[in-house]
Amino acid sequence: EGWQSVRKVKDGETTDDLYAFLTTEPNAEVGAVHPKAMPVILTKPEEWATWLSAPWSEAKDLQRPLADDALVVVARGARRDGRADETS
Fold first, then answer.
1. What is the pLDDT of residue 87?
2. With 0-12 CB in 10 A as exposed, 13-18 as middle and 19+ as buried, what is 4?
3. Which residues pair with 5 in a beta bridge?
4. Are 35 and 24 in contact (CB under 8 A)?
5. 83 domain residue, yes or no
6. Which of 18, 30, 31, 45 is most buried (CB neighbours < 10 A)?
7. Tens-digit pLDDT profile for residues 33-46
8. Mean pLDDT, to the nearest integer, of 8-24?
9. Is residue 17 one of the residues assigned to a domain?
10. Three-class secondary structure of residue 16 per DSSP
11. Per DSSP, what are the bridge partners of residue 84?
12. Measured between alpha carbons, how far is 41 from 23 in angstroms, rounded to an integer?
């Protein structure tokens, strides 16, 4: 919160709230769309507590994909939001 830096030269120094997320290998559902990585998703209260309070030696074990079939694909097909498809 409140990170000060020059992210864009034209904007000069700004103060921004920055966030990040941890990724891991994709499970079957995500791998079909994005074969490189998926966000780590914590689904149980004990996982949240471990992530927020345990030492890294314990918390790092949470960096794993969800089990296959844990996610439900809700849409397939061509993008319809007007943005160009990105490839990377």
1. 54
2. exposed
3. 14
4. no
5. no
6. 30
7. 899 999 999 999 99
8. 91
9. no
10. strand
11. none
12. 9
Q: How many domains does the chain have?
A: 1
Q: Which domain holds residue 68?
A: 22-77
Single pTM value for the model: 0.64
* Number of neighbouring beta carbons within 10 Å of residue 34: 11
Q: Residue 28: inside a domain, yes or no?
A: yes
- The pLDDT tens digits for 61-87 are 999 999 999 998 888 777 777 666 555
CA distance 39 to 43: 12
Q: Is residue 2 part of a domain?
A: no
How high is the mean pLDDT of the chain?
Answer: 89
Q: From CA 31, how far away is CA 38, in angstroms rounded? A: 8
29, β-bridge pairs: none
Reduced to 3 states (helix: H, G, I; strand: E, B; else coil), residue 13 is strand
